[in-house]
Design a protein that fits this description.
Elements (H helix, E strand, L loop, with lengths): L49 H11 L3 E2 L4 E7 L15 H16 L19 E3 L12 E7 L4 E4 L8 H9 L11 H9 L5 H7 L11 H6 L6 H14 L3 E5 L14 E5 L23 E5 L9 H20 L7 H10 L4 H10 L7
Parallel strand pairs: 5-6
Antiparallel strand pairs: 1-5, 2-4, 3-7, 4-8, 6-7
Helix pairs in contact: 1-3, 1-7
Length: 364
């Protein structure tokens, strides 16, 4: 039977039990060569930081909003499996409290400065959300479902976010980043080969933020390392001030065929800053209430909840089934896709509703 808890080791967002921050030490900066490493953990007055304000300016210029209510999916392994539903979940308040705990904990990884996980974290810490209920089923047996209201703010790293030259200059002068952190890993390797930097400099900077390329998923991934703490704090403060809760990044999705083109991306959900901790001592995110909606679905949840939740479960499982069938045929053969939809349990109004809820999805 299910138990009203979940394992942080299960998953998509990799909210493991995090290691404590590692203290880093500064090295002398050679102004002439601009090659020696500055500790990114060096303290700086963030509230008055020019670099942080410039970073926020650059992000503000590219903030987007969801143009309609949008649905996302996050797979996880339900404790006890999916054969039977624990009666505890039959009470609406229990379900919602449990779901809020799941979202708070996993989204909270973005705000937890003791979280330094980079393995399988494509675009930094947070709760990873797929555009559809089929593309990420390898990460669990149950889909947590999040309905996000129109107007919610996000940024996208599908194309790099350009950072001003004054932003990068301020980051370096304030000791937020090393001068070498503007280079790509490949460039650093070539600089080492050409003996333009030492082996020590290379080792200290090989997990580069690559900021010459702009703000990318690479920078978001490696920002969690202790040596990049100052940059990470500036990023968090910018998210907080700009009321950002999502980051889009390039990843797989199974929209294509069901949607006219299909967006090949996913999102990281961060919630908003909180100082509260969960029972494992990890920072939780603040999770919005209505009109945000939370649900979960697996085969054992069919017909067990309120009418609205049951409809969400039904649509999710039928949508997943249809997408699996579409993946087996020519995604661009509209007649074949239409045939699959007609033979499915989805009505034409169901299909229209799912397309409306899917991120940037239009009918073929």
């Amino acid at each position: 039977m299910f138990k009203p808890f979940f394992s942080l080791s299960s998953l998509y967002s990799l909210n493991a039990i995090y290691s404590k921050s590692v203290k880093t030490f500064s090295k002398a900066l050679s102004v002439t060569l601009a090659l020696s490493t500055i500790s990114a953990g060096q303290a700086f007055a963030q509230s008055g930081s020019t670099a942080q304000q410039l970073l926020e300016r650059d992000l503000k210029a590219v903030v987007r909003t969801f143009q309609r209510d949008t649905r996302f999916y996050h797979y996880f392994y339900m404790a006890g499996g999916t054969t039977n539903l624990d009666p505890w979940f039959l009470k609406y308040e229990n379900r919602q409290n449990w779901l809020r705990g799941l979202f708070e904990s996993r989204a909270g990884a973005f705000w937890d400065l003791n979280n330094h996980v980079t393995d399988k974290v494509n675009a930094g810490p947070g709760m990873y959300m797929a555009l559809d209920p089929n593309s990420t089923t390898e990460y669990g047996d149950t889909a947590a479902i999040l309905d996000v209201p129109k107007g919610t703010r996000f940024i996208t790293t599908v194309n790099p976010i350009k950072l001003g030259s004054d932003t990068i200059k301020a980051m370096i002068s304030e000791g937020m980043i090393s001068p070498l952190q503007v280079h790509s890993a490949a460039t650093l390797a070539q600089m080492l080969k050409d003996k333009k930097i030492s082996a020590v400099d290379y080792q200290n900077n090989k997990e580069s933020l690559e900021l010459n390329n702009g703000l990318t998923m690479v920078a978001l991934k490696f920002a969690v390392l202790p040596k990049h703490r100052s940059f990470r704090e500036a990023l968090q403060k910018s998210f907080e001030n700009l009321n950002l809760m999502f980051v889009e990044y390039g990843y797989k999705s199974h929209q294509r065929g069901f949607c006219k083109q299909g967006r090949v991306t996913a999102f990281v959900f961060t919630g908003t800053r909180s100082n509260e901790k969960d029972q494992w001592g990890n920072i939780k995110a603040n999770i919005p209430g209505a009109p945000f909606k939370y649900a979960f679905a697996n085969d054992s949840t069919i017909g067990k909840f309120s009418s609205e939740e049951n409809e969400t479960v039904r649509l999710t499982l039928e949508f997943r089934s249809v997408l699996r069938q579409i993946r087996k045929v020519n995604l661009f053969d509209k007649a074949t896709v239409d045939g699959i939809l007609k033979q499915s349990a989805l009505s034409s109004s169901d299909v229209a509703a799912l397309r409306s809820l899917s991120f940037r999805c239009e009918a073929p």
